[in-house]
Write a structure and sequence with these properties.
Blueprint lengths: L3 H18 L5 H17 L4 H27 L8 H25 L5 H19 L5 H18 L3 H27 L1
Length: 185
Amino acid sequence: MTTLTEAAGFALAVAMVVCSIRQWHWSWPLGIASSVLYFFVFQSNQLYGEASLQILFAALSLWGWWQWLRAAQQQAHVKRLDRRGWLLCALTCAVLWPAVSWYLQQFTDSDVPHWDSLVTVLSVLGQYLLGRKFLENWWVWMVANTLSMGLFAYKALWLTVMLYGMFVAMSWVGWRTWQAETQAA
């Protein structure tokens, strides 16, 4: 059943991604508000990795907001990950996924610790890459959001499934938009 909290988080999250695609720094405070609301949605549905992720998203959004405001002053543009960057991303996932999964198995009553932890780790990586304005953040988000759709369907969070489906499509638009900027630069 969709709650008012989920509906408000949904609306704020859509606005946040639209602002991110356009590289408007207002995406970050919208993300903070959405994260706070989704913390309660996920916690009440035993998605503890996702709930914890919302707290981390709120903190990373403060950092991202600062990064983007600073980048605007320096006229920083979208960047591309090099081979080393991709290797570091893969290594980060290879280390953190089992660690977060183990934590969820040991200290929570999660019925989906492996799935929840994978989505959590990919989402943290995506958020970091977004804050640093790496084009590849959109690919990470496409994978994380696609996996999230299945996770939220399992938990019958249908409005959130729809939101993450929209996120997949919006990630594609974000990638195309940012890619055009990198080619023009």
